[in-house]
Amino acid sequence: MFFLGSASHIILWLFYKSLRKRKVYLVSFLIASLLALYAILHTDSPELKSTEKDYWLFLPILFLANFGLLRTLFLIIFGNEPLMTGYRQSSWEQGEYRRLHFGDAFFTILALVVPWLIIISLSYLKILN
């Protein structure tokens, strides 16, 4: 389950530009909700070992909720769409005609890291176990 949750989180993160479309975002949110529902229904299953819990399936829905919130805040604060940045990458390489700024860097880091931190901290606190 770790691989499925992690892979879907990374895929959503890499293809974040397609999430700007409302239909794509809603379909992705529906699929992520189904994964989270599966995780909720099977977390207390006695046949799962403690290291194989399904809480990693919450990563996609946490990413989508985090992405929606961060994107809305970015649009309010900066007035344009956020860009995921790479190390020493320019916006010209992405086909965007504006300069990258610290908001893009924060958006990139927070969109990737916050869902992982939530899952790791909750599993550490034994809330989901």
UniProtKB/TrEMBL annotation:
Keyword set, alphabetical order: Membrane, Transmembrane, Transmembrane helix
Transmembrane segments: 24-43, 55-79, 100-125
Protein name, entry field: Uncharacterized protein
Organism: Chryseobacterium terrae
